[in-house]
């Protein structure tokens, strides 16, 4: 029963991060290129190019978008060309043929919630593999830079305190730099909890009160970071079980007494077998692609 509840918790976290994120990926919205579903975007970096057939700069950008697709389509990446000037099947088909476009083109596809506001087109935004928008704007060069960085980040463990900004004058600045996945976190949590207790005393100084506020923010960030790590482990089980094994081992080192860590460690023997088979499959795919390219 406990294992079932734990698995449900993992799925719930993962569902929250990924389900319902995207709109417009239906057959009725599709123009050309590979058809995709929301499931195809889980664990991938996604670049959305909002464009229109009646926009000269948009049309001029299409060959560059095609080169981008050719360069990254075999990585953990998906590109969505989101047409946003009304359904134009004939005109879109003409541009697809003229530019030999092979990437997915949809009408009005994109993030369902909190999509960056486009002030004119072409407009590009990049969503990392955790569902966070890491770039939005009109510069294709800046978008490619953000995309490249996001692809690199796929192979890096999540940051346990996320994007929490620590003031240079904060007494916890040095401590925060030491908090990382794979390093025991208990000593840092104890220090932060002590600072909170000191700040709550009736005779606490303003500095102690400020330190208590800072400490609570960091503790909150760690708790949120744990959820993100757990969700990413669940995603990696299917997208990259090798990373899933690595992240479980790191999580268990950071939180050895957590129930989640104990449950995850129990899954490692079977997951290692899955990871081994996945690696063999990836090598076979790479060899096939290399042979095809010759």
In a nutshell, what does this entry contain?
With 294 residues, the chain is an alpha/beta fold.
Protein model, in words:
- This protein is of the alpha/beta class.
- The protein has two domains: 21-153, 3-Layer(aba) Sandwich (Glutaredoxin); 173-283, no CATH class.
- The protein is 57% helix and 12% strand.
- The protein has helices spanning 2-18, 38-41, 56-72, 89-99, 140-153, 173-178, 186-200, 206-239, 241-254, 259-293; strands at residues 22-23, 30-32, 45-51, 77-83, 105-107, 110-111, 123-127, 133-137.
- Strand 3, helix 3 (56-72) and strand 4 form a beta-alpha-beta unit.
- The model is unreliable at 1-17 (pLDDT under 50).
Structural class: alpha/beta
In percent terms, what proportion of residues is strand?
A: 5-15%
Helix coverage percent of residues?
55-70%
CATH H-level superfamily title of the largest domain: Glutaredoxin
The tally of beta strands, per DSSP, is 8
The overall average pLDDT, rounded, is: 89
Give the overall shape. Answer: globular
Count of discrete alpha- or pi-helical segments spanning 4 or more residues: 10
Indicate the CATH class of the largest domain.
Alpha Beta
Separation, N- and C-terminal Cα atoms? 53 Å
Radius of gyration: 23 Å
> What is the third-level CATH name, the topology of the largest domain?
Glutaredoxin
| Low-pLDDT residue intervals, each spanning 5 or more residues | 1-17
What is the level-2 CATH architecture name of the largest domain? Answer: 3-Layer(aba) Sandwich
Describe the largest sheet.
Answer: 6 strands, mixed
Q: Give me the side-by-side strand order of the main sheet.
A: 2-5-4-3-7-8
- What is the domain tally? 2
Topology as H/E string?
Answer: HEEHEHEHEEEEHHHHHH
